[in-house]
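By way of example, we now present a protein record of this kind:
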Amino acid sequence: MRAALQAPAVSTVVADPASVQAAIASRFCCREFLGTPVARATIERILRLASWAPSGSNIQPWKVYVVQGASRDALSRKVCEANDALAADPALASQYREEYQYYPDPWVSPYLERRRACGLGLYGVLNIAKGDRLRMHAQMQCNYEFFGAPVGIFFTNESLMAEGALVDTAMFVQNVMIAARAEGLHTCIQAAWNPFASIVLPHLGAQKERLVCALALGYADEQAPVNTFRPDRVDPAAYTSWLDLAPSARACRTLVSDTYDGHAETSLSFSLIERQRRRDSF
């Protein structure tokens, strides 16, 4: 059994905030990679850093599978063949299912409009006309080739895990994507593999697990037109509600009981604790 990672002794002050901001802001879904290999040591550094993601009760429910070389190519071939067959005969869709529902059904506003804008923007950069099913399918197949990236990463949970593990794993995956930027690498988060979990999981030896998502990892092809596509973001004012700005003593009460001068009392959080102690002297 491997020894657990010990928390690094670091300051709570970020020495270079701009580098953190740049890593976050420069992340995008890269859809064309160079074939340049990525060293295993680099991937290990990324995963090690990402492991400091939060999780409920620190259960760390994620499992990670890195595919490269022959394993990567074989899996790509299997899923591309399955997707070709599905395109030729949509009735085969009953053989493939996501292990959790990713999108709403039916779509509603404003999410429908955002999805359409993203699709139109991407196909616009690729010069794929609306209704050109042949080219749309070819572009979809690129997902299953990791957009040319030499590294594919799959994230899973044990099947017994509840929905909270999806949240935990998503935070871990985000850390992977940001840590990759620190190594000069780019990524593309992929849910397109999810319907083919019945092919992916046996290939990984993970039949008793739930496929959460996949990730393409590599060096971006900076000359590829598709990598100029950057969908916009909603202004935080559109989704943020500001409630009471001043902290309330009532809101800060806890159910934790401690002992003060031999008497039990209800403790308060942070600066309110002394105020309460003076008021409730025994």
The radius of gyration is 24 Å. Residues 56 and 132 are 45 Å apart (CA to CA). Confidence is low (pLDDT under 50) at residues 255-275, 277-282. Strands lie at 63-67, 151-158, 186-190, 209-218, 253-260, 263-268.
